């Protein structure tokens, strides 16, 4: 049972917004496109694992996808977490193409793809670290903690797992599995962990705490790519010709292609939240959309159902990315 479904990561939405708003033929566009492609491939890999998880319909499995939990002063992120009354299972999902070579002697993984060899962060130590963070999270929040185990799941069925020459597969590398073996690995865990540690009440408390503590990562995407606000499109973009639209009474109008729209400002505001900051004032909205009337700005802002703080002229409208 999914307690938290996987949604398109905020980072992907931010990169897409950046590409929408970057001036044409910007020198960083190919790099950003490449990053986006990688992230989408990773997301699709996670969704492929969700397909296998969808068979765990029994109520005793609570599945949390893409949880990002605070551990002062940082956060830690888990691709998938399965909570049962008997154990908790962390899944570290890897979308790797080609051949993955494991060398236990050096704690080293290398990927061979299209004749190119690349080193890889050891996903086992990554998962071990997450296990420690999760243990601390349970402890800090005074939650009853079933034993925590982990698996590294290779989402691409065509990836070949291989041991380095002269090495045999031994723990902890036996924890690297293909997604299609996930359900049988979970059956093994069910046979291994038969002590009911968390009661129904404990599980509801864990669920509530995880869902309330989850916070999506909001990064300063412009800073990450070293892009200034001046390098972005400003104003309301025409969806037909990508030109700039202007406000005529109650409607957006494109001088260039004569296209009109009632809702063209929505994308501009959404992109502002994704690229600049997750809140806006009436004055900032007028600057963004190129309109004079603060009354029009207020009508637009009120139509977006945003959370507000402050009052009258000082009202700040907040976008909630939860
Ligand atoms: Zn147009």
Provide the descriptors you would attach to this structure in a database record:
322 residues; alpha+beta; six-stranded mixed β-sheet; four-stranded mixed β-sheet; 9 helices; binds zinc ion
Briefly characterize the structure.
With 322 residues, the protein is α+β, with helices and mostly antiparallel strands. It contains 9 helices and 17 strands.
Task: Write up this protein.
With 322 residues, this protein is α+β, with helices and mostly antiparallel strands. It has two domains: 2-213, no CATH class; 233-318, Arc Repressor Mutant, subunit A. It has helices at residues 10-21, 29-53, 123-140, 182-192, 200-213, 221-225, 264-275, 282-289, 294-303; strands at residues 2-4, 62-71, 74-83, 88-94, 99-103, 108-113, 116-120, 148-154, 160-163, 176-178, 236-237, 244-248, 251-254, 260-261, 279-281, 307-309, 316-318. The strands form four sheets. Strands 1-2-3-4-8-10 form a six-stranded mixed β-sheet, with helices on both faces. A four-stranded mixed β-sheet has the order 7-6-5-9, with no helix packed on it. Strands 11-12-13-14 form a four-stranded antiparallel β-sheet. The structure holds zinc ion.
Low-confidence stretches are none
State which percent range the strand residues make up. Answer: 25-35%
How would a crystallographer describe the biggest sheet?
A: 6 strands, mixed
Say which molecules are bound, naming each kind only once.
zinc ion
Radius of gyration: 24 Å
Number of helices: 9
What spatial form do the alpha-carbon principal axes imply?
globular
Mean pLDDT score, rounded?
94
Structural class: alpha+beta
Distance between the termini: 20 Å
């Amino acid at each position: 049972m999914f307690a938290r479904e996987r949604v398109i990561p905020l980072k992907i939405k931010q990169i897409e917004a950046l590409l929408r708003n970057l001036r044409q033929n910007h020198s960083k566009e190919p790099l950003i496109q490449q990053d986006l492609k990688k992230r989408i491939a990773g997301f699709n890999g996670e969704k492929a694992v969700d397909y296998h998880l969808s068979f765990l319909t029994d109520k005793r499995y609570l599945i949390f996808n893409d949880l990002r939990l605070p551990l002062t002063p940082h956060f830690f992120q888990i691709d998938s977490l399965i909570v049962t009354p008997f154990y908790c299972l962390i899944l570290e999902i890897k979308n790797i193409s080609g051949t993955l070579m494991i060398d236990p002697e050096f704690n080293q993984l290398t990927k061979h793809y299209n004749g190119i060899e690349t080193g890889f962060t050891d996903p086992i130590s990554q998962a071990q670290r997450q296990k420690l963070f999760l243990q601390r999270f349970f402890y800090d929040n005074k939650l009853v903690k079933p034993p925590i185990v982990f698996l590294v799941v290779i989402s691409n069925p065509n990836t070949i797992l291989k041991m380095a020459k002269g090495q045999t597969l031994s723990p902890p590398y036996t924890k690297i599995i293909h997604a299609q073996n996930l359900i049988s690995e979970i059956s093994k865990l069910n046979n291994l962990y038969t002590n009911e540690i968390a009661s129904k009440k404990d599980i509801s408390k864990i669920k509530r705490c995880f869902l309330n503590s989850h916070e999506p990562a909001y990064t300063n995407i412009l800073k990450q790519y070293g892009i200034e606000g001046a390098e972005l499109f400003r104003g309301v973009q025409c969806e037909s010709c990508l030109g700039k639209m202007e406000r005529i009474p109650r409607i957006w109008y494109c001088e260039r292609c004569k296209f009109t729209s009632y809702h063209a400002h929505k994308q501009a505001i959404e992109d502002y939240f994704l690229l600049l900051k997750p809140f806006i004032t009436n004055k900032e909205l007028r600057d963004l959309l190129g309109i004079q009337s603060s009354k029009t700005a207020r009508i637009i802002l009120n139509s977006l159902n945003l959370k507000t703080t402050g009052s009258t002229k000082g009202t700040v409208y907040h976008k909630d990315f939860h």
